[in-house]
Amino acid sequence: MLAAEPEARAVLRPRQRRDAVPQTRWMHRPEATLWTRAALSAMKDHGTPLVEMVPGDIGYWCPAYRQAGPDQRGAFWVGFLSALAKHESTYRPDAVGGGGLWYGLMQILPSTARLYGCRARSGAALKDGAANLSCAIRIMARTVPRDGVIHAHSTRFKRRWRGVSADWGPMRSVRKRDDIAVWLRQQSYCRPLESLRPRLRPAGFSAVPASKAPGRGGVPG
């Protein structure tokens, strides 16, 4: 049997139900479903540049992304936002940092929100979780395609931090990036299809009857 082409792999993966939401890191919050659905909606609107591109460093964040379809890619970005929100605001929509400078789940500066054309343009408006996430997606949909990566740093350029790291401080920490990436790679939307399939019993192996199975300590009973 021929190996499935990249375009076919997304079809082979079981489709999500329309009412299903991807796994996120804010699942424990009462607003979780609202935030997730709002972010998914934004991904299908002004977040489409993210879904349509393949970041150069995507293998570190989400091995299955390159062969994924639009819905699965959107799920990754929402999961990514939820994991980054842990380090930005510890999932608190009313968080205010920097002495009154940054607001909400993703700690966005109101002037930055206005610059990128977000609907939430004031500190008070950015305390709305859904609006804050929508704004973050609008920003990332410009910076990630612009730089071609989710994260990069180089002293060769005037703008040293690139991708999401250009605007979100936790992305500049190796420890926090690793924490985000490790969590993402464990999610079904980031695991290659092969890792989700049940593994066949190796040839030549057969089930051991319970009566002949080793007892405690590996000694036959």
From TrEMBL:
Residues annotated as domain Transglycosylase SLT: 75-143
InterPro entries assigned: Lysozyme-like_dom_sf, Transglycosylase_SLT_dom_1
Alphabetized SUPFAM superfamilies for the sequence: Lysozyme-like
Domain of life: Bacteria
Family matches, as Pfam families: SLT
Signal peptide: none
Family membership noted in the UniProt record: Belongs to the virb1 family.
UniProt name for this protein: Lytic transglycosylase domain-containing protein
UniProt source species: Marimonas arenosa
